[in-house]
Amino acid sequence: MANIVKNNSLTKLMRMKMKDGRLGNAAIPRFGDNVSGSLNFDSSEDNGIAQKENYSLENSPRVLEKVQRLIHEAITMKKTDSTDMKFSELCEEYRKLDWDNKRMTLFVLATQYGIDRVNVRNLIKHYMSLDHCDGKHESNEFTADNELNLTALYRAEEKIRSALTPNSARLFERINWQPGGLKFLVDLRADLRATIQDQNLAPLRALDTELKNMLANWLSPAGLELHQITWNDSASLLEKIVAYEAVHPVSNLYDLKRRLGVGRRCFGYFHPSIPGEPLIFIQVALTKNIVESIQEVLWDEPPIAELEATTALFYSISSTQPGLSGINLGKFLIKRVVRLLQQEMPNIQTFVTLSPVPGFMQWLLPKLASQAKFATLDSADTQQENLDVLTFKEELISPSEKLLLESFRQLATNTNPSYILWNWLTSPASEWTRSEQQLKVMQPILLRLCARYILEEKKRGRALDPVTNFHAQNGAIVESLNWMGDKSEYGLAQSAGIMVNYLYRLENIEENSQMYFDNGVVPASPKVEYLRSPTKSLL
C-alpha cells in the first residue's frame, strides 16, 4: 500500500511538471516526504495486459457478433478495397468487448481462420504428380519441356506456401499496415497469452506462435530506435518508466532523478509505430569497480565522477509490453548499449550486471520441506509404500553443513537440519537476518545452494532460473554471487538476499553463447565454481 501511495504521489508531481514546466532542484522531495492527494494512473491502455473491462454485459453479445463479422470482412476483402475505416472499426469494437467475449473472439480466430487443410492436401497431391526434374540437366541448356516442368513446379510450390499461411496471419499483416495497428497487435497477444493461461489449447498456442513470429520480424533491431532517457524527457515518458520498472521500483521523484542523473544512464528501445512508449529499457550505473549490493547503487551517496568510472553496471532491465513476451529484445539492447558506451566513454572497460535470482527460494523451499518430511519417516515405513518416493530423495545439505545446523537444534521443535534451515528461511519478517550467528551459518550454505541452482538446475536443457538463462544466452558468465546483495523484503523473499554479477567479456560472448546453446553449460568464474563444492570450508 505504501508503494502505491508513493507512486500515485509521484504521478501527480510529474503531471505538475508537465503543466508548469521543468521542476528545479528545490522541488525535489526527499525520502519520506508526503505529497497529499493522488491520481489514478491507468496504464491498461498502455501495457496491453488483458483487462476485464467495465463494459455493459447487455451490449457485449452484440459487439461480439459485430467483431466477428468485421474479422471475416477484413480477411476476405480485396487489397484494393478501402481498408483503413474497416480495420479502425475492428480494433475499436474489439476493445469494447468484456473479457469473456475477448477470449471467445480469440478462440474463433484460432479455430475458424487457420489453414484449409483439405486445400493443402489437394495441392500437395497435385505437386507430387508433377515431373520433378529438380533443375538437374546433363547440359546447361534448358529445353522447352524442362522450362514448362519447372514453371509448373514453381507455381505449385507458391500455391502451397500461400495455402500454408493461415487466414489469421493475413489479418494480422493487414492490421499492422494501419496506424496504431502494431500496438493493437501487441495488446492482442497479451490477451491471447492470458487466454492460454486459462485454456491451454493447441489452436490458441498455434495462433500465439504465429503472432509472436510476426511481431519478432516487425520489431527487428534494425527497425528500433535507441534513445537515452533523461530528466528532460516528457513527463508522460517518465511516468511510463516509473510504472514499468519491474526490478527495483522507483520510490519517489528524487529516486527517479538520481537514476537519470550524473553517473547513471537509462536507455530504451522505441519503435516509430508506437511513439512515446519504450518497448524495453535498461538502467546503468557507472562505477569504479563491480558493485555487489543494490543498496549501494540506489541509495549510497554520491555517484562518482563519470571520468573516474571504469565499469558499466546494468542493474535493471524491464520489458514494458506483456504482448512481447518471448521476444528477446533485451539481448540486442544490451549489446547496443555496450557499443554506445564504448564509443562515448573509452574509460569504461568492464560491462557487468547486478541481477536478482528470482527463482531461487521457489526452488529451494519445497526441496527443504520434502527432505524434512523424509527424515520423519520411520525406517519400518519405508519398505514399500514410500519406496518410490525415496527413490528420488537427494542429499541437499552436506554432512558438514548438517553438523552446523544441528548445533541449533535446541532452538527448534524439529531437529532435522533441513527443517531448521526451512524454518529460518520462512520466519516472519526474515528474522534470521537479525541474528549474526544464524547469518554466519547460513551464508556458505545458501551461497553453495544458489550456485548449484544457477549452474546445474535445468529445464529442457536450459538454466531453470530465467535471469541466468537470459544472460547465458547472451554470452555472459556468472562472475560472482553476492551475499546480502538485496536486503529489501522482496529480495530476501525471492533469493535470500543473494544477487549475481553476470560479466560480459566482449571477446568471449559469442563463444560462451554458442557453448550454452549447444551443451546447456552455464559458464562461470573459478570462484563461483568453487562455491558450489560441498567440500569447501564453511567457516
Can you give a write-up of this model?
This protein is α+β, with helices and mostly antiparallel strands and 539 residues long. The chain is 51% helix and 9% strand. It has 23 helices and 9 strands. The protein has a 5-stranded mixed beta sheet with strand order 1-2-3-4-5, covered by helices on one side. A hairpin with a 2-residue loop joins strand 6 and strand 7 (462-463). Helix 5 (99-112) packs across helix 10 and helix 8 crosses helix 9 (181-198). The longest helix has 21 residues, at 436-456. The protein starts with a helix and ends in an 8-residue tail after the last helix. Residues 17-58 and 387-391 have low confidence and may be disordered.
Count the beta strands.
Answer: 9
Count of helical stretches: 23
In round numbers, the mean pLDDT is 83
What oligomerization state is this entry in?
single chain
Major sheet details: 5 strands, mixed
**Structural class given helices, strands, pairing?**
alpha+beta
| Radius of gyration based on Cα positions | 28 Å
Shape: globular
What is the rounded distance between the termini? 41 Å
Strands of the largest sheet, in order across it? 1-2-3-4-5
* Percent in strands: 5-15%
In which range does the helix fraction lie? 40-55%
- Which regions have little confidence, pLDDT < 50, spanning 5+ residues? 17-58, 387-391
